[in-house]
Design brief:
Chain A: GO terms for molecular function: branched-chain amino acid transmembrane transporter activity. Chain A: It comes from Collimonas arenae. The complex is a heterodimer of chains A (354) and B (314). With 354 residues, chain A is mainly alpha-helical. Chain A contains 15 helices and 2 strands. In chain A, strands 1-2 form a two-stranded antiparallel ribbon. The longest helix of chain A is centred in the last third of the chain and has 30 residues. Chain B is globular. The chains are: A mainly alpha (354), B mainly alpha (314). Chains A and B meet through helix 5, helix 11, helix 13 and helix 15 of A and helix 3, helix 4, helix 9 and helix 14 of B.
Chain lengths: 354, 314
């Protein structure tokens, strides 16, 4: 039993333990809400990384599958109102199936091409669907969206999902299941072939796997998990609007995932936490949070394509201590960043006065 | 007849503006193999710079200076950003320009706020150019069309007939050979990227006051120019020309027409009750569906002819 195998064996129980203990440590209601958002975003980021990190598909439309699934879930919840509270446990599954169906429909068009063209098609589809949703206010609720109530009915063994804590545990349960399933998928032949299609589609085709078909399969599976994430978002906020499937929302998923690191399985989870903290905590301090998020993203693309997980991995591989030169460089970088933040904040103050 | 002609002219002017925008994008793509996601952001910067300059110096200096400024920015972006990302492949390039577009919108809001700017059409060009039947065609629209055509003729002449155009074409096909002959290929890349951004900036100068100058203008036109480029065929200038005119005219007509399938059926004597399946779909007017036309067109082209109208490669 070497140390590394011990570490890999303890990862999943450790993850489960963290999920269980987290709300006991951060028990305030605001913290619970942030934790719940992190959970939903983690599923979305992990499922997005099935496309970008594992299959080399840069889609700009990931929010479409989560958003459409969220709409379906809301309507399902509204039709189940008055039933048993336990039915809520399965709503995410309904969302997942809805996401998968949407992925099957739109993914067929998207995955016919690879590379840049695929990105452009996914972009056009987002715009198409985001604009199309506003045309049918009857079902999508127009600009204001569709409301729902997650408390479906009589408590089931004392659980009715009225409290945020219960909702958090529902999200945590599905997060654990989805993360395990997505990790298992990376170990299957399909997951491996998806890597091959990412790295060298021509060779993948030569050994008898149609790259288009592999991309399409991965796309549908990714949309399935995105659908689960979308349904959980709907349960968490109890409202879904057209904003949920906008390009901006897709862009955020992309940003968070990449900042976390697309080369590692757990990278997107780090990104989801960072992203949610940015958008929920930092936004209370400064109006410039989106600018900082964008700048962070650009910096990471330029200097650390492995994202936060990549930096972490490199630090962990270093056997020797950190040298004086790199410390000085780090201090210089921090100073520069501080000056930049100061200048930007001053500008925002100036803009606020006007 | 009057409606048809005026709408055609409006559609043409919009289509030409789209082409002015997408030509820079196509130029950059065929040269560097990167689809610049921030292209529409440079269009927006062109409009904002022109507004800032026109307050101080007037419209005509802005018409010259703003595109130059935007081009300079483009050169900096290529030299200090894109060039370093290139070794990580196409996806990284796309991600970088995508992040850039995200940052530029925020910076514009930081500098000019979130509301629309009062960037007005210059007095010399404010007024009717000619009158068709009873509808006046604005002078500024004519000026836009003329400017777009002139710019594109100049650009194509530069590419086809001048020495620098020769070098650019050679850098496209035989970069190593060009290096061996002692030319600085990376500098040519930077120049082309700057020129493409300057074209976007120029489109911003004339588009900003013809439509509206506000932080949402990049997002509004950004996806459409990608549609133009993909529908026309990646890297094909002629394809982009056809696609932009097609989309410009289609959208302008659609916005102006207030007919729906329902009214069409009613004309044939078929009445549909509000309870029927698909009634909400039948009730939609063309004007309501107009925003999604370009995207529908793209999906259709992708299904029928994946490489685009005039694309030579998949």
């Amino acid at each position: 039993m070497t140390l590394s195998s011990l570490r890999s064996k303890s990862v999943w129980p450790g993850f489960a333990l963290i999920l269980i203990v987290a709300p006991l440590v951060f028990a305030q209601s605001a913290a619970l809400s942030i934790l719940s958002q992190c959970g939903c975003m983690m599923i979305l980021a992990l499922s997005f990384n099935m496309l970008l990190g594992q299959s080399g598909m840069l889609s700009f439309g990931h929010a479409v599958y989560a958003g459409l699934a969220a709409f379906v879930s809301v309507h399902v919840m509204n039709s189940l109102a008055g039933g048993s509270a336990a039915a809520l446990l399965l709503v995410p599954l309904v969302g997942g199936i809805a996401g998968m169906l949407a992925g099957a429909a739109f993914g067929f068009v998207t995955t016919r091409r690879s590379g840049t063209a695929l990105s452009m098609i996914s972009l056009a589809l987002v715009e198409l669907i985001a604009a199309g949703v506003l045309m049918f206010p009857g079902w999508f609720g127009g600009e204001s969206g569709v409301n729902t109530d997650r408390v479906l009915g009589a408590p089931f063994i004392g659980i009715d999902f009225a409290s945020q804590l219960q909702v958090y545990y529902l999200i945590a349960f599905w997060l654990f299941v989805c993360a395990a399933a997505m990790y298992a998928l990376t170990q299957t032949p399909l997951g491996r072939i998806a890597n091959a299609v990412r790295d060298n589609p021509e060779r993948a085709a030569f050994i008898g796997h149609d790259p288009r078909r592999v991309r399409y399969l991965m796309f549908m599976l990714s949309a399935f998990f995105a659908g689960i994430g979308g349904a959980l978002t709907a349960i968490n906020f109890e409202i879904v609007s057209a904003e949920n499937l906008s390009l901006l929302r897709s862009a955020q998923i992309l940003l968070f995932t990449f900042i976390g690191g697309i080369g590692y399985f757990f990278g997107p989870m780090i990104g989801a936490v960072v992203g949610v903290l940015f958008s929920s905590l930092l936004s209370t301090y400064t109006r410039g949070w989106q600018l900082y998020l964008g700048l962070l993203f650009v910096m990471i693309v330029l200097f650390a394509p492995g994202g936060i997980a990549g930096i972490w991995g490199r630090l962990a591989e270093r056997r020797r201590g950190i040298g004086m030169a790199s410390l000085i460089r780090l201090a210089g970088l921090l100073l520069l960043a501080g000056v930049a933040v100061f200048l930007i904040e001053m500008l925002y103050r100036r803009a606020a006065v006007q | 007849m009057e409606f048809t002609l005026i709408t055609l002219l409006n559609g043409l002017s919009y289509g030409l503006l789209l082409f002015l925008l997408s030509s820079g994008l196509t130029l950059i793509f065929s040269m560097l193999g990167v689809l610049n996601f921030a292209h529409a952001s440079f269009y927006m910067l062109g409009a904002y710079f022109a507004y800032a300059i026109s307050i101080q110096l007037g419209f005509w200096p802005a018409l010259l200076l703003a595109p130059l400024l935007v081009g300079l920015l483009g050169a900096l972006v290529e030299r200090f950003g894109l060039r370093h990302v290139r070794r990580h492949g196409q996806v990284a390039e796309l991600l970088f320009t995508f992040g850039l577009s995200y940052v530029i919108v925020e910076l514009v809001q930081l500098a000019w706020g979130k509301s629309a700017m009062p960037y007005a059409i210059p007095a010399q060009l404010d007024g009717p150019l000619f009158t068709l039947y009873s509808t006046a065609f604005p002078m500024y629209r004519g000026f836009m069309m003329l400017l777009a055509l002139l710019t594109l003729l100049t650009a194509s002449w530069l590419l086809k007939r001048s020495r620098i155009g020769l070098l650019i074409q050679a850098a496209l096909t035989h970069p190593q050979m060009l290096e061996a002959l002692g030319h600085n290929v990376p500098r040519i890349f930077t120049l082309v990227f700057a020129a493409g951004c300057a074209l976007a900036g120029l489109a911003g100068v004339v588009g900003g006051n013809a439509f509206v100058t506000e932080p949402g203008m990049a997002a509004g036109v950004g996806s459409i120019i990608f549609v133009v480029v993909v529908v026309g065929g990646l890297g094909s200038l002629a394809g982009a020309f056809i696609a932009s005119l097609l989309i410009g005219i289609l959208q302008t007509y659609a916005v102006a027409l207030d007919v729906s399938l329902l009214s069409g059926l009613a004309r044939w004597g078929i009445q549909v009750s509000p309870e029927a399946i698909g009634y909400p779909l039948l009730r939609l007017t063309l004007a309501q569906v107009a925003p999604v036309f370009p995207y529908l067109l793209l999906v259709l082209v992708m299904l029928l002819r994946p490489r685009g109208l005039l694309g030579r490669r998949d």
